[in-house]
Structure formats: structure tokens, C-alpha cells
Design a protein that fits this description.
Number of domains: 1
Structural class: alpha+beta
CATH class: Alpha Beta
Shape: globular
Strand content: 15-25%
CATH superfamily: Kinase associated domain 1, KA1
Radius of gyration: 19 Å
Distance between the termini: 70 Å
CATH architecture: 2-Layer Sandwich
Largest sheet: 6 strands, antiparallel
């Protein structure tokens, strides 16, 4: 009996550690808050927070790999916090004060785009930093990405 309790206790402890180490992320981007310090391609196109997704041609896995290789070359890149087969969370730092901003990418293979979201962690206004960052990423992406003016 004591051995069974010990085994159950160890099982619960292992489960708690695994859940803490390997969080589960939903394959969707959060909507932007009401504040103007966020832009996202999943917002309605008529909203000020909207920005176009990153369009690509060819296999989604190739575009995904190119995106992950390009991000560290972008000014302000800090780290890739986590990356999966269809979603990625990167952190960028602003050039002036070094504030950290969260940038997310989600593969939308059916539409041949990567959905994007960039939000400042601090403050109400971002003075266009999030939109500018995503546009710099867009311009830096080589094929298979396509640049629509």
C-alpha cells in the first residue's frame, strides 16, 4: 500500500513538472487589446491594429524555416521564446529604452500566409514601433516569401 502511494505521488510530481516545462499553446493568435500598442494580421482589415500577413509561395515548412532563420538578423531581435511546428513566439527589444515586445507568428497553410502579431509589453502607445518591426521583417524575408506592395 505504501509503495502504491509513493508511486502515485511520484506520478503527480512528474506530471506537474512536465506541465510546467512544456506548456501547451493554442494554434491561434490573441486579438489585440483596445490599446494602440499592438498590430495583428488576424484583426479585421478595417481596424487600425490590422497589418497584412506574410505571404509565401511553396511548401509551408520551407517558409517557416526561412522565417526562423531570418528573425535573428532583424534589428532588436532578442530571442525566440518558443517555437513549434506552426507557431512561434519571439521577443524583440526596442532600440531606445530596451523595452521587450512580444511578436508571434502562426502558419496558415491553407491561405499560404504566416499570420503575425506584435505587442508592446509596457505602455499604451508604441509610436508605430510594432508595425515598423513587422514591416522590416517582411522586407528582409527572401523567397519563398512574396512582397505585395
Amino acid at each position: 500500500m505504501r509503495g502504491a502511494r509513493l508511486l502515485i505521488g511520484v506520478g503527480f510530481a512528474a506530471a506537474a513538472v512536465l506541465l510546467a516545462v512544456a506548456p501547451v499553446y493554442a494554434a491561434s493568435l490573441d486579438p489585440c487589446p483596445q490599446s494602440p500598442n499592438c498590430v495583428s494580421s488576424v484583426e479585421p482589415p478595417d481596424r487600425e491594429n490590422y497589418i497584412a500577413p506574410l505571404a509565401f509561395q511553396g511548401p509551408p515548412d520551407v517558409a517557416w524555416k526561412v522565417l526562423q532563420e531570418t528573425l535573428p538578423t532583424i534589428e532588436g531581435f532578442y530571442e525566440i521564446r518558443w517555437a513549434g511546428v506552426e507557431m512561434l513566439h519571439a521577443v524583440f527589444k526596442t532600440s531606445f529604452f530596451g523595452f521587450k515586445d512580444d511578436v508571434q507568428f502562426l502558419v496558415d497553410a491553407k491561405r499560404s500566409v504566416i499570420q503575425v502579431r506584435s505587442e508592446s509589453r509596457i505602455g499604451w502607445f508604441d509610436f508605430g514601433v510594432n508595425r515598423d518591426r513587422l514591416e522590416r521583417i517582411r522586407r528582409a524575408l527572401p523567397p519563398p516569401f512574396v512582397h505585395v506592395p
